[in-house]
Amino acid sequence: MVDKIVVEHLNLQYADGTESLRDISLNIPANAITVLFGPAGGGKSSLLRCLNRLNDLTEVKVVSGKILLEGENILDPKTDVIALRRRVGMVFARPVVLPMSIHQNLTYGLELAGEKRKSRLDEAVERGLKLAALWEEVKDRLDDPAIALSGGQQQRLCLARVLANQPEVILLDEPTSGLDPISTGKVETALQELKKNYTIILVPHSVQQAARTADFAAFFLQGELVEAAEGKELFTHPRQKRTEDYVEGRFG
Amino acid sequence: MDKSRNWRETIITAIVKTCGYSAIVFVILIFFFLLREGLPALVEVKLGDLLTTRWYPIENHFGILPLLTGSLIVTVGAMLIAIPFGIGTAVFLSEIAPRWMREILKPLVELLGGLPSVVLGFLGILVLSPFLRVFLDLPTGLTALAGALLLGGIAVPTTVSIAEDALDAVPHSYREGALALGATKWQTIWRVTLPAARSGVLTALMLGIGRTIGETMAVMMVTGNAPVLAVKLTSIFSPVRTMTATIAAEMGEVANGSTHYHVLFFIGLVLFLISLAVNITASSVVFKSRKRAERVLS
Amino acid sequence: MKRRLSVDRFLVQRLGVAFITLAAVLTVVPILGVFGYIIAKGAPAISWEFLTALPRDGMRAGGILPAIVGTFYLTLGTAVFSVPLGIAAAIYLAEYAKENWLTRLIRIAIINLAGIPSVVYGLFGLGLFVLFLKFGTSILSASLTLSIMTLPVIISAAEEALRAVPQSFRTVSISLGGTGWQTIRKIILPQALPGIITGVILGLERAAGETAPILFTGAAFFLPRLPGSPLDATMALPYHLFVISTQVPGMPIQIQYGTALVLIVFVLGMNLIATVIRSRARAKRQW
């Protein structure tokens, strides 16, 4: 399996100097779902945000290390972060729909890139919505304000919005934490389809979700990468006691 | 295409940044010009002569003390009105009035705040001062009292607006907690809600004071414009003259570059420094209270 | 013993509430009185001629058109200078500035600009625009002076409107590959626009009613015709009211009240527009 992203000895620090992530080295394979899981405060979200350089917006600093996307270090100051963020898209924990229509939400990313042709934009809208399994539900009301959708639909809209941008990698930070089980199921099903063509990195909101979806899994505890392995392996035969304790629910 | 976007982004960021700094530039510019035209007054008229009690520019008497006391007495009088009425109305709107009444009255009070001061001065001349003259049996109604009443009226809307916002911001849980302990509504207001809103209320008062010190037209029209030293308690019933009114009234007739001209700018400089002091005090009061609140809440 | 305590408490309660209510009544009733009085006494003077004709007989008859037009020009001039500058400064404070000493200094400067007495602005305008830059007593000088005075109001209102837009929109826009300015232009500004417009109108409303800043920088009383260029002086409603109520003997009372009424309507009309914009925007908001 080819590695899409390789994290090499990454060290992150908060603004006040406390450590966020300590010496993280991790290989993330292409066209698979890699799950970063662990109790709160483990640094998973911070790592995720480094993968599309969204950490530039926060007070989290990279002290040392590299993140290679297909061989190129995206932490390099010369990196074109705009282009990077189009290749690596993100879905956040709470659905954030932009204050526009459904159609406009989906074309927003492309318009940022300068795409003006109506045909291309409409095409992207349909493509994104179909990939996110939302097309059938909204195809007749694309001009309605996006805020009118239900929570689950909004989150799938956010996924569609990322997909309309034609990324290579999709980051998801607890995407179903506010959703009901049916919506959660729809998102997880969509991800299983999507992994055939995209690299997916997911921070789950529960160990169960991690076990359900992971092709590969990495366990983070208080800034340290404790263990990383194939999904089935990690959850059934964890090698570290800490991993086993967390998976079994003895702490968390 | 990305490179041109980079350029555009850089230029726009630079423009926005410059505009951001503009406020500082203007304050410095104003200060500089006041100094430029006002400091010569200290040369042409010695400081000792400026601090005398006779303001009669025609005969080269430039004592600004009567103007200072004029401003002072009118401001103090105005605050004596604005504080009870302003805070009282704010408390009424925030704590006692039913919702529908508040929705009507608050915009009404703000409407008064939007009224140009020249209109209030106008009414002051035609309505208020004749009334005062008759009611208090005075030789003229154009007195410090008229000025204080009008200024109080001008300061009240600002005070009410900000104080009411501050009271509104106090969390409901504070009030509920007090009432649950058996306090009456008044006790809740007086001992819990008002103290909790203290920094906002103080800000409201300071901004009200700022507004009164700086008011020009209304006072010029009703205080009688007699530069007489106002230090007795009964001075409130006599005509006075404020610093602001002096500048407004005399600037038009003054020769450019003359001593009178420089002294008027000097008075302007004094006003600028007073408002600077009031504003810095106000913002540090708010800042300190907020820090204390943060410490307490954490 | 216990009974006396509870009687005291409730007595205090009733007195306290009564006092506060009295304060409110004594505040609100005069406000209504002021408006009512001016409307009642000024309405008879309002006629088509009053609003559209030039004055005659030393301002004692005819209309006040030049004053109305002048106030309009001054308000427009103020907007031209203060609105772009104010919004840009607000964007800087809300979107770009970090919380350091320099930003605090800017905020202190804004608070100070807001507190400077209007007559001091008049002096400043006289010193800088009229004399130093040699613009003379003109609409230009007066507008520039009023702009600096209006700036803090616009900056404060605009900054608040920008900050009210949820931070999550910015994060999403950046994560989709947007630059800072693209995010501001496509999402933040449009969403903040109603709040900004409200603040701008309220600021301009204040500028329209001010007399002291234009006293020595642009206002004139007796002009034979309407101003032809920004370098002309102009009549203006607040200044006009001031002069006719204090310095013109034999001025008919009705014209004075009429002028006051026109000024109030001009100013409060702006207030009304701002309020309407604010409530309609709140209803249509998508967040």
Explain the overall architecture.
The complex is a heterotrimer of chains A (252), B (298) and C (287). Chain A is an alpha/beta fold and 252 residues long. In chain A, 37% of the residues lie in helices and 26% in strands. Chain A contains ten helices and ten strands. Chain A has helices at residues 44-51, 81-87, 102-113, 118-131, 135-138, 151-164, 181-194, 207-213, 231-236, 241-247, and strands at 3-13, 19-29, 33-37, 61-69, 72-73, 88-91, 169-173, 199-203, 216-221, 224-230. In chain A, the strands form two sheets. In chain A, strands 6-7-8-3-9-10 form a six-stranded mixed sheet, with helices on both faces. In chain A, helix 4 (118-131) packs across helix 6 (151-164). The longest helix of chain A is centred in the middle third of the chain and has 14 residues, at 118-131. Chain B is an all-alpha fold and 298 residues long. Chain B is globular. A two-stranded antiparallel ribbon of chain B has the order 1-2. Chain C has 287 residues and is mainly α. A two-stranded antiparallel sheet of chain C has the order 1-2. The N and C termini of chain C lie far apart (57 Å). The model of chain C has no long low-confidence stretch (mean pLDDT 89). Chains A and C meet through helix 2, helix 3 and helix 6 of A and helix 7 and helix 8 of C.
- What's the helical proportion of residues of chain B? over 70%
Q: How many domains make up the coordinates of chain C?
A: 2
Taking the alpha carbons of the first and last residues of chain C, their distance comes to: 57 Å
Count, helices of chain C: 11
Compute the number of structural domains of chain B.
Answer: 1
- What does the largest sheet of chain B look like? 2 strands, antiparallel
Strand content of chain C: under 5%
What fraction strand of chain B?
Answer: under 5%
What is the spatial order of strands in the main beta sheet of chain B? 1-2
Number of strands of chain C: 2
In CATH terms, the superfamily of chain B is MetI-like
The number of distinct helices of chain B, counting runs of at least 4 residues, comes to: 13
> Which strand order do you get reading across the main beta sheet of chain C?
1-2
What is the architecture of chain B at the second tier of CATH?
A: Orthogonal Bundle
